[in-house]
Amino acid sequence: MPELPEVETVRRGLEALVKGKTIKQVNVRYDKMVSPNPDEFKSALKGKKILDIERRGKYLIFRFSENLSMVSHLRMEGKYAVLPHTEPLSKHDHVIFELTDGSDLRYNDTRKFGRMNLVPSGKELTVGGLATIGPEPTPETLTFEYLSQRLRSKKVGMKSFLLNQSNVAGLGNIYVDEVLWLTKVHPLQPSNTLTDEEIKALRLNIFSELERAINAHGTTVFSYLNAAGHAGSFQNQLNVYHRQGKPCPRCGTLIEKIKVAQRGTHFCPHCQKLRLPND
Ligand SMILES: [Zn+2]
């Protein structure tokens, strides 16, 4: 699933490719992907200009003329591509925004899990997970005070805490494993047992890891591509994710993989020791 660095990379690509362009018409080939219903969706977007593309957590927010916004979540496999309108459609192109300049913005999704919700601007925070989303992982919005208070108010394992978008927006399976390794915290460490020093380090590691990943245009694990069809390269900088059985880059101990909250979870058993609350 694309996480914040991948969605931000998509956003930047879309900004460069379609910002300022006008929609001639929209073709919806999988009705359940859009809201409201396809007829309303198509008639509302006809003739609208794409003013901007923003991001909140893992959600893209398209801003159109006449006070319209569209919240788009790529879920597992969603991708946008900009192609000449004359290019044949592929089987998994489900929503096609035909632009007046002769190009198409096409949304392709092999798993069909992605969703697009069109709402009046200002109402986007009522859509799906945006209604309860936590702070963006930036120094200004994810403060030490917020994070320490939130961690201490819960007694969940750290992997589950960081995956929960209502605690912190944007992190998913890859970056949670990486950030916990950087911070030397076990994925099952109860959130209310982190020391102030660990919370400070965790916060800084979240910022630096996401920044490095954005600079590398995200991680290409399965089929993620940015809007221009390029793969990201951050998979070459991962320390633990998908590295089970390989040596920890810090201490040489073999990386282990366990299941936490139904997610494959990678960690170094030497660097990330589980501390029980009474230790
Ligand atoms: Zn290690």
Automatic annotation (TrEMBL):
Residues holding DNA: H92, R111, K154
Enzymatic reactions: Hydrolysis of DNA containing ring-opened 7-methylguanine residues, releasing 2,6-diamino-4-hydroxy-5-(N-methyl)formamidopyrimidine; 2'-deoxyribonucleotide-(2'-deoxyribose 5'-phosphate)-2'-deoxyribonucleotide-DNA = a 3'-end 2'-deoxyribonucleotide-(2,3-dehydro-2,3-deoxyribose 5'-phosphate)-DNA + a 5'-end 5'-phospho-2'-deoxyribonucleoside-DNA + H(+)
Regions crossing the membrane: none
Cofactors: Zn(2+)
Keywords noted in UniProt: DNA damage, DNA repair, DNA-binding, Glycosidase, Hydrolase, Lyase, Metal-binding, Multifunctional enzyme, Zinc, Zinc-finger
A GO molecular-function descriptor: zinc ion binding
Role noted for this protein: Involved in base excision repair of DNA damaged by oxidation or by mutagenic agents. Acts as DNA glycosylase that recognizes and removes damaged bases. Has a preference for oxidized purines, such as 7,8-dihydro-8-oxoguanine (8-oxoG). Has AP (apurinic/apyrimidinic) lyase activity and introduces nicks in the DNA strand. Cleaves the DNA backbone by beta-delta elimination to generate a single-strand break at the site of the removed base with both 3'- and 5'-phosphates. Involved in base excision repair of DNA damaged by oxidation or by mutagenic agents. Acts as a DNA glycosylase that recognizes and removes damaged bases. Has a preference for oxidized purines, such as 7,8-dihydro-8-oxoguanine (8-oxoG). Has AP (apurinic/apyrimidinic) lyase activity and introduces nicks in the DNA strand. Cleaves the DNA backbone by beta-delta elimination to generate a single-strand break at the site of the removed base with both 3'- and 5'-phosphates.
Family in the record: Belongs to the FPG family.
Species whose genome carries this gene: Pediococcus claussenii (strain ATCC BAA-344 / DSM 14800 / JCM 18046 / KCTC 3811 / LMG 21948 / P06)
Subunit structure and binding partners: Monomer.
Example GO biological process: base-excision repair
EC number annotated for this UniProt entry: 3.2.2.23, 4.2.99.18
Cofactor notes: Binds 1 zinc ion per subunit.
Name of protein: Formamidopyrimidine-DNA glycosylase
Domain FPG-type per the UniProt entry, residue ranges: 239-273
Top-level division of the source organism's lineage: Bacteria
Formamidopyrimidine-DNA glycosylase catalytic domain location: 2-114
Active site (UniProt): P2, E3, K58, R263
